[in-house]
Amino acid sequence: MPTTHPHAPACTHFDAAHTDQSDGARDHAWPLVVPALAAWASALTLIGCSARTGMIVAVCSALAATAVAWRAGLTWGRSRSTWWHAWRSPHPPPWRNITLATLICVAAASASVAFRVHALATGPASDLAKRNAFVKAEITLTDDPRRRSKTGGHFNQEGYVTPATLELVQTTGTGHSVSVPITVFANGHDWSTFLPSQRLEVAGRLAEPTPGDLVAAILLVKGPPRVLTPPSTLQTVAGSLRAGLRAAADVLPADQRGLLPGLVVGDVSRMDPQVASDLKDAGLSHLNAVSGANLAIVAGATLAVSRLVGLSLPLRAGFAAFAMLAFAVVARPSPSVLRALLMGLAAAVALGTGRAKDGLGALAATVLLLVLFAPELARSYGFALSVAATAGILILAPRWRDRLSPPKEDNDTPGRPQPAGEPQHTGVSAAGGTGCAASADGDGRMDGNGDAASVGGGCEAKTAVGRWPRWVAEAVAVPVAAQVAVTPVLVLMSGQLTPVAVVANLLVAPAVAPATLLGFGAALVAPVWPDGAKLLVIPAGYAVGWIVTVARWAVNLPFAILPWPGGLPGLGLLVVVVAVAVPILRRRAWRAVALTAAGAALVAVLVIRPIAAAWPPKGWLMVMCDVGQGDGLVVAAGPGRGVVVDTGPDPIVMDRCLRRLGVEDVPLLILTHPHADHVGGLPGVLRNRRVGAVVVSPQRTNERAAAHVSATLAHQRIPEWTASPGTGWRFGPSELTVLAPDLAQSRMDGQGDGSAINNSSVVVLVRWRSGSILLSGDLETEAQEELLRRVPLRADLLKTPHHGSHRQSPAFVAAVGARAALISVGAGNDYGHPAQSTLSLLRRLGATVYRTDKSGDLAVVERDGGMAVVPRGP
Q1: According to the model, what pLDDT value does residue 458 have?
Q2: CA dihedral (807, 810, 813, 819) positive or negative
Q3: How far are the Cα atoms of 79, 162, 415, 650, 865 from residue 638, in angstroms, in the given order?
Q4: Are residues 305 and 400 in the same domain?
Q5: Domain co-membership, 766 together with 701
Q6: Are 509 and 34 in contact (CB under 8 A)?
Q7: Is there a single domain that holds both residue 519 and residue 648?
Q8: Among 155-159, 837-841, 848-852, the least confident range
Q9: What are the tens digits of pLDDT across the range 682-721?
Q10: Of 292, 320, 675, 832, which residue is most buried, by most CB within 10 angstroms?
């Protein structure tokens, strides 16, 4: 029975004949597991450090390994043999040998990172990046350009980002031949047509990469590129297959035509944003990216066909390996696909040689190889999710499966002759796994998800405590085991739990394999028979349609997403909860009490939840978040989307407000001026959200705050633009127009530098069908009167300037003529905001005053053809 999971969506079959070997197989895997984890940890720690630090760690580890070997009286050759072959021996090796292997792997991983960092930090590309030099360069693309954002106004060009190899760089008449990885940012639709392996000539400015990124530089391309060489034949064929699938999917509804290419070959260029949001909230986001599940399904289908035609076991394994390699080329070898591919190739080798039980050892060997040769994976959340899910399936799923259902009685051990008349069993699941294999998946928006391909692993027999059918037990054990394994990584990554993910993945499981196989078949057929491809896409559409339906249903369930502290504190809390819960649930007497208490708590929350769920009000147009002493506003931009104007002082508070509103996509972020109470919460907006572009004030007086903002945006690779009067955007129901500042106003002084910065605030007029609001930043008297002279001011609502300070122009407030004034202010602040004189002025001019320190969040809604303000609190 195929099963799936957010990070382990492949089908799994546990071979009962191997269950008695599970403990031994896991014991023998430790000589690889411990060194692999240690190498991973060392690479994770040292990325972002200097090359010197890495070499110091490498040398110290090598010296420690020498000391251990000398102490044990081991020669190098003997120690190496003991480490590498111990997992195949009938007895686990002594921990001394594992320690030696661990130190050797730490030294190797540290040296690998050090050499990479040194190579990237020296040379012409790095030197030019430090000077932000304008260069002419020749680059070779190493992946498909990915679209970043598409907005309005001055941002109407499509932005693309792609990894590339810098081959030649020229500046001021001097050319340097190099070969280093870089990240390219460019605008223009032409970039969507380029393929990996193409060589381009571009002009642009080099910039230093984000710390921790193992690239030599960032290249900001200016102007159109010039094609020097076409893509290779292999990439041309792969690009043709991807384009053919996109064209064939045009016959499907919009939500399905974007998901099918994403599910099959990882092409999300036409993914509906709402569908992507639903998949993420339901724990199904792995389905819009290529994963180990795809490789497992393709390999499984290849094995089934080759078995039907009577090929021998080694030939079957060879064809499965070829199919996985071909699929990886078409889907692009992303880090997660590389990990899945190596696992799948290991499974094929195990199948061909009759050793299909060493899944955990193969996983550890794969991790070790990838960390040594691609150390940048050590910091990939997708890679971590992939490895954790696969390990959970190999270690936990067999136990839980056998406790739910008695072990299947058979003797079809791979590599052993079968009784006469009995069908030969290969130890491979229909999804391509071997033995106790499974696959795992996830992505990472780091935009993501990790994934794993199937590989054989031993299962263990336990006394069954249930009477579930075997296929049901397998279907439940796999996603639950994978979900448990990836939960710590998800907490670190997103600060939330998704309990609905297991149910959602169980429901979509039957649709994943048909959609993948039919979609891949359509991709293969499309270049020679487009109409035939459409015939295959139509039934695939029913499968992806079911996936979309399940996702939409799941996200509307109560507690689809549970907030949880993020980072290390959240992980620590999770460890404490598990440490307390496991002993309780293992005791039969306490189990009933715990379940009863949990049920009572669930009922209580279900009763309370409808009351709390009244926020935000339906159809909200704008929300002024209660961020304390500061500004943080969200303008509705469509389902799950919002334009953010200022971020308040606290990232956590701002993030919580956006979570309450369900905002996951921020097409535009406007930072009115560089004061901490307006930009300090920027990391909270960026947390697990896509931000299309950021608009900032032209005022640079507060260089420290402005530089911090610019550095943060550069780290996230988000374009930064300077506000200009007349610039406008339309997002969903909202139309935004910049009214100020102009360059003269941005230099206007008031009472010191603080006033100069306040007077340079970006002023935005937001219009809806039923009314408008003027967002006035922290303008003070001088800038208010200057704006009044330049622009006709009229709005239904006013965001009171500068938190209601005493520096207000009565003429300005009267000209706006707002019926209601919203003031974002912190309770008991030291500035005396809002001033009593300002409150009296607003009321005298007929405006109803709403304050966040009194009422919490304030929502603007349409009511009776006009505008109304709805407070969250009393």
Answers
A1: 39
A2: positive
A3: 62, 28, 58, 25, 20
A4: yes
A5: yes
A6: no
A7: no
A8: 155-159
A9: 989 998 899 999 999 887 655 567 777 887 888 788 998 8
A10: 292
What type of residue sits at position 344?
G
Q: Which two tokens stand for residue 786?
A: 């200057």
Number of domains in the chain: 4
Tell me: pLDDT of 754 over 70.
no
Residue-range definition of the domain harbouring residue 511: 16-22+263-563
Least confident among 382-386, 489-493, 581-585: 581-585
Tell the burial category of 789 from Cβ atoms under 10 Å away from its Cβ (0-12, 13-18, 19+).
Answer: exposed
Cβ burial of 607 (10 Å; 0-12, 13-18, 19+) is: exposed
Average pLDDT along the chain = 78
Of 652, 651, 686, 687, nearest to 669 (Cα)?
686
Report the share of the chain in percent with pLDDT over 90: 34
Contact present, 283 and 550 (Cβ < 8 Å): no
Evaluate if residue 774 carries a pLDDT over 80: yes
User: Which CA distances in Å does 169 have to 86, 108, 176, 761?
Assistant: 49, 32, 5, 40
Do 414 and 437 fall into the same domain? yes
Q: Is residue 706 part of a domain?
A: yes
- Model confidence band, residue 10 (pLDDT cutoffs 50, 70, 90): very low
Note whether 423 and 533 are same-domain residues: yes
Going by C-beta distance under 8 Å and a sequence separation of 6 or more, which residues neighbour residue 637? 643, 665, 667, 668, 731, 732, 734
- Give the whole-angstrom CA distance, residue 785 versus residue 622: 26
CA dist 842 and 820 (Å) reads: 9
- Claim to verify: residue 580 and residue 555 sit in the same structural domain: no
pTM above the 0.85 mark?
A: no
Does residue 105 belong to any structural domain of this protein? no
SS3 867: strand
Sheet holding 820-823, edge to edge: 728-731, 734-740, 763-768, 771-775, 797-799, 820-823, 848-851
Quote the tokens at residue 245.
């699938």
Query: Does the pLDDT at position 570 exceed 60?
Result: yes
List pLDDT tens digits, range 640-687: 999 999 999 988 889 989 999 999 999 999 999 989 899 989 989 998
SS (H, E, C) 24-78: HHHHHHHHHHHHHHHHHHHHHHHCCCCHHHHHHHHHHHHHHHHHHHHHHCCCHHH
| Tokens encoding 697 | 């004030």
Residue 203, sorted as left (phi over 0), alpha (psi -120 to 50) or beta, turns out to be beta
Both tokens of residue 323?
């199919």
Q: Is pLDDT at 599 greater than 70 in this prediction?
A: no
* Measured distance CA(840)–CA(459) in Å, rounded: 76
| pLDDT, position 600 | 65
Alpha-carbon distance 295 to 307, whole Å?
A: 18
